[in-house]
Amino acid sequence: MNAQATTCADLIRPTERRAALAFDATLVIGASLLVALAAQISIRLPFSPVPVTGQTLAVLAAGALLGSRRGALSLIAYLLQGLGGLPVFASGASGWAYALGPTGGYLIGFVAAAFVTGWLTERGWDRHVLLAALAMIAGSAAIYAFGLPWLSIYAGRHVVAVGLTPFIAGDVIKVALAALALPAGWKLVGRNA
Question: Which residues contact 62 (CB under 8 A, 6 or more apart)?
Fold first, then answer.
């Protein structure tokens, strides 16, 4: 095990430069595909242009497990895949028209969320339940910080009712799952401080 590990991915990262670059690239692409898969778990709400998806949990996990840079890069890769026409966005959507639609701000917020969550976990916030929950809340806040202003172009004064309120219960569940899983993972590998 790497004594200097700051994220779970760092525990198994090779030390040789070329192997480390290949490892990082594999993680970035793998996490982008995980987010794409989670996007297919999608429920359309009749009153909101924003679907309920598994994406946010995958986004926060990417940041927490990979760290700020690799996490953010994985979400940039995800966005590039979708913009390039691969059906990776919610319900198999893709392209610029989708990305510039009501959910476009949330998509950009995913990059910020992975970075923020990763930055906090690099500082040990994923080793304790309360701090892990706060890291996930900070990541979720980053998603809304980009998503809600963009959605307000489409939803106007109803932005909170259609872009935030319906997602709070799901966000609480996702934060709780991550807050319990991350410290437990560190304890499994014998590293909790």
Answer: 31, 34, 35, 70, 71, 74, 75, 114, 118
* Bridge partners, residue 111, by sequence: none
Q: What are the residue ranges spanned by the domains of the chain?
A: 8-188
| Tens-digit pLDDT profile for residues 17-70 | 999 999 999 999 999 999 999 999 988 888 888 888 889 999 999 999 999 999
Write out the DSSP string of 45-86.
Answer: -TT-SSPEESHHHHHHHHHHHH-HHHHHHHHHHHHHHHHTT-
pLDDT of residue 29: 98
Q: What is the CATH number of domain 8-188?
A: 1.10.1760.20
CA 40/CA 30 separation, integer angstroms: 16
